[in-house]
Write a structure and sequence with these properties.
eight-stranded mixed β-sheet, globular, seven-stranded mixed β-sheet, single chain, about 35% helix, about 400 residues, alpha/beta
Length: about 400
Amino acid sequence: MSTDKPTHDPQQAWDVVVVGAGPAGASAAYAAAAAGRRVLLLEKARLPRYKTCGGGIIGLSRDALPPGFELRLRDRVHAVTFTLNGRFSRTRRARTTVFGLVNRPEFDQQLVEHAQKAGAVLRTGVTVARVEQNQPDRYTAQVALQGGETILARAVVGADGSAGRVGAHVGVKLSQVDLGLESEVPVPPEVAADWKGRVLIDWGPLSGSYGWVFPKGETLTVGVISRRGEGAATKTYFRDFVARLGLADFEPSVSSGHLTRCRSDDSPLFRGRVLVCGDAAGLLEPWTREGISFALRSGRLAGESAAHIAQARDTQDVHRRALDYASAVTTGLGAEMTVGRRVFDLLQRHTGLSYLAVTRIRPVWNALERTTRDSIPLAKALRSHPLGRALRLDR
């Protein structure tokens, strides 16, 4: 059941308990442990484990990694091929790496190991049943596990995904839910060579949909995403997408589906001593549905805030520290999501024009390249771009 066993008195509270060992949870555990707190990191799966994800590492993700983290890229992207529902293929090339691609099980495992090196204790194979904050014990939260065990914590960070128990406890509200379908497809060396250093982005036939191919050595990550509620049409898009690429005859090593969820603007980020981050808070880019950078950044903020909450003198101090966390997220990541929604809405109304803008207007491609390569949020890039100002996407 456990990777590491707690060595303390079970009646003694942990400073910080983090639920979920993905990028958000591992980042939170690292930040809290690096601040000198006693941290317990809980994960229901056994590591390493697969996650439905393209594995793209943009500049914002790269710069949010813990100090000394060795980024093991499976490929470096220098070219992007764009298509419009399989037609009008056009490739844009860059002189430097636009973004990198990682294997998620390996990447997540590395993040957890960094948290452990900082002092966090990991327990795997455990499932959280509920979180409670009951009076008269105002100084701890209770994390109840399936099987009856209860863990006490002075602060809890929920990073257990968009359908997790901690988000339900906090009362996270969602405004956008999408369905992603993905396969890991091993291919012969000659096929892999054709994709090396190049990804494909396809504007799909459904409103707000797109498909992708991300190369990782001799495996291609192939997927599509669209709004939830169009499951049958999304499956048809995925099947047609794979067939058009000539990949239908290759047997996937993994096929999976996943719902991505974006928070509402008024969704809470904490309740008492409990914070949420990453997917558990509904934090991801609404247009591209990129979530790793949001997970890493919000996880770090949550871990730092939880470290302060664990040392808070009274409930007012707890509330003040939690408000600081919520303010940092909403003014930073929340502002990025607001701009992302505006871009997403525009692209849904003008799919063909957006394809033409990226593939035919060099400054648009340059702006897109800049936001992925450098540590520049989309909102900031649009503020400095004439097109963003003209379309009022930066407000």
